Amino acid sequence: MAEEVSWGLWSVAVAVSTWLIWEHHLVDIVGGIALAAVVMKLVYPWLQRPETKQALWVELCCLWQCLQFSRRHVRYFVIFLAIYLPSIRNWRRYRVVRTAFCVAQWIDDLVDGDRPSAREPLDVVNELVDEMSAGSFSPQPLSRLTGALFEELKAFRTADDEPEQDLIALVREMQRDRTRVVGHELWSDQELDEHNRRTFHLSVNLMLIVTGCEARAHQVPALVDALGWCSVFRDLEDDLGKGLVNVPRRICERVADRGGALTPGLLAASREFRAWVRDAHLRASAD
Questions:
Q1: How many CA atoms lie within 13 A of 35 on its CB side?
Q2: Cβ-based neighbour number of residue 226 at 10 Å
Q3: Cα(177)–Cα(101) distance, rounded to whole angstroms?
Q4: pLDDT at 1 over 80
Q5: Alpha-carbon distance 264 to 281, whole Å?
Q6: pLDDT at 261
């Protein structure tokens, strides 16, 4: 009570002082008091509601994450515009799209080594998967944002669609990239194709669900395969530098047999690698 009285007296003193030294007219002061009263009566109680605080936190967190993504590469700024500009017309409806993108990209950055982590990324993501499976989330920012996304996804459940389970399956599939790096694993053509196809099948399906499309990923297999091809060849050199090898084992072993390391230069000099790239490009063009 004493604190409220002190703030009230201070506010009155400020208002009166601006009038006495002719910095403001009396009508300015009266208008300011009226505006403050309206804000305190209508806006302030709204801002104190738990759901409002959560929504504001989610929006600020998503904006901050988009800034971090965009600082790393301009393509993420393009994605930011592609998601946020359509949101202007229906901000609340597309919150789930903004949140889903930020959660998925944040996890992807962790497992791919694009975001510093004080702990082993696999441990962080394993805990997150456990939380998603249990439906209980910690106050940590990534966990809290994922929890907010899960709340949004509930509205999209149908007899055919289970977006929460799709998200869990997608994260588990993304974890395999980190497992490959830690274990220095080399995969066959079939294993790489299946991994890319499953990753993008799940991510495309989530995208179609949350944006309100009627189609599903199984109806657009060419899109799924094309996105997998783009991802592999766009990041091939960077991934090799981080120990993530998206080149088939048969090619890597032949390069190693010749006494070479798995560097982009030596791979490019391999006729087996060039043949694989040509074949992948033909398949992507068909898609």
A1: 6
A2: 17
A3: 19
A4: no
A5: 17
A6: 65
